[in-house]
Write a structure and sequence with these properties.
Rossmann fold; 13 helices; four-stranded parallel beta sheet; 2 domains; 11 strands; elongated; about 290 residues; about 15% strand
C-alpha cells in the first residue's frame, strides 16, 4: 500500500468492520473506543472478579512478610496488587506495608504493578523488562542471581485469578520455596448467555476483528465454546478474522489454545490496542482472506 492510501486507511480506522471485544470492567470505554475508530462494536462481558471464599493464604502471607521471612515478593498485576493490599489490611495496615516490603526484594512484572507499588510508597523495586511475561521474571532472577538469590529461600507470588504454572515451576526449578498468594478468582459472568451467543456468532463468521485484553477472556471464550461443541469452529473462524492481543501474556494464552495472534499494540494499553488494530485490521484481513 502506498503512503497516501495507507494514511487514508489509517484515518478511516476500522472503516465499518465488525469488532468483538470481551471486556468486562471497562466495557463502556471499549465500546466508545471502537465506535470512535470507525468499528461496529459488540462488547460482551466474559468474566467477573470474585473474592476467594477464604483469604487465609493472603493473611498468612502478610504476617510472614512483616516477619521478614521472604527473600522476594513478585507482583504480577496492578489490580491484583491493590486487591492484595486491601485484603491484608486487617493484619498489615497499608501504613506499615512499605517498611515490610523494604525487608525483601520486590519484583514488579510490568508498569502497572510498579505504579501500584509506588503509590503505596514503595520506591525500591526490581522492574521486569518488556515484554513483561513470566519468562522475563525468571530471566531477571537469573541475571541478578548474585543480588537476588532464591535457592532454598521463600518467594511469594501475587496471583491474579489463575495460577501461573510456568512461573511457579520455573521458580521451583531454581530451588525457590514458592508461596502463591491468591487474592481473587475469575468466574464467568452471572449471566453467561451473551458470551455463549457471541461465541456462536464468532463461529458463524459474524465478526471481522476480535480483541483480547487479558488471558482470562481467552480461557472463558474457549470454555463456553467447548461447552457448545464449537471450539474447533472458532479456531477455523479465527483464521479468517483479525485477532488482536493486548500483550505477550495474552498472546501466549492464545497460542496455547491454537488461536492466532495477528497483532499486539506497541504498549500493553487498551486505547493503543484499539487504535493500532483500527489502523492495521483492514490490511491484515485482506491478507488473511486471500490465503
Amino acid at each position: 500500500m502506498d503512503p497516501i492510501r495507507s494514511a487514508v486507511h489509517a484515518r478511516r480506522g476500522f472503516d465499518g468492520l465488525r469488532v468483538l471485544a470481551l471486556e468486562s470492567r471497562r466495557a463502556a470505554d471499549m465500546r466508545r473506543l471502537i465506535a470512535r475508530s470507525g468499528g461496529i462494536a459488540a462488547v460482551v462481558p466474559s468474566m467477573r472478579e470474585v473474592p476467594r471464599e477464604s483469604n487465609a493464604a493472603a493473611l498468612a502471607f502478610a504476617q510472614d512478610l512483616e516477619a521478614g521471612v521472604f527473600a522476594a515478593v513478585i507482583f504480577l498485576t496492578g489490580v491484583g496488587t491493590r486487591a492484595l493490599v486491601k485484603v491484608i489490611e486487617p493484619v498489615l495496615p497499608r501504613a506499615r506495608l512499605p517498611a515490610a516490603l523494604a525487608r525483601t526484594a520486590v519484583i514488579a512484572r510490568g508498569p502497572k504493578p510498579a505504579a501500584a507499588l509506588r503509590q503505596l510508597g514503595v520506591t525500591t523495586l526490581n522492574a521486569v523488562p518488556a515484554p513483561h511475561t513470566w519468562r522475563e521474571v525468571l530471566h531477571l532472577l537469573d541475571v541478578r542471581s548474585a543480588a537476588l538469590p532464591i535457592a532454598d529461600r521463600r518467594v511469594a507470588v501475587q496471583e491474579y485469578g489463575v495460577s501461573n504454572d510456568g512461573l511457579i515451576s520455573g521458580l521451583r526449578a531454581r530451588g525457590a520455596l514458592v508461596t502463591p498468594v491468591p487474592v481473587y478468582e475469575w468466574a464467568l459472568p452471572e449471566d453467561a448467555a451473551p458470551l455463549r451467543q457471541a461465541a456462536a456468532a464468532l463461529e458463524r463468521g459474524d465478526f471481522d476483528v476480535l480483541l483480547f485484553t487479558t488471558s482470562a477472556q481467552v480461557h472463558h471464550l474457549l470454555r463456553v465454546a467447548q461447552e457448545q461443541g464449537i471450539d474447533a469452529g472458532i479456531r477455523r473462524a479465527c483464521e479468517r478474522l483479525v485477532v488482536a492481543s493486548i500483550g505477550p501474556s495474552t498472546t501466549e494464552t492464545l497460542l496455547e489454545y491454537g488461536l492466532p495472534s495477528d497483532l499486539e499494540p506497541s504498549r500493553s494499553n487498551m486505547g493503543l490496542l484499539v487504535m493500532e488494530a483500527a489502523a492495521r485490521s483492514g490490511d491484515l484481513l485482506r491478507r488473511k482472506r486471500a490465503r
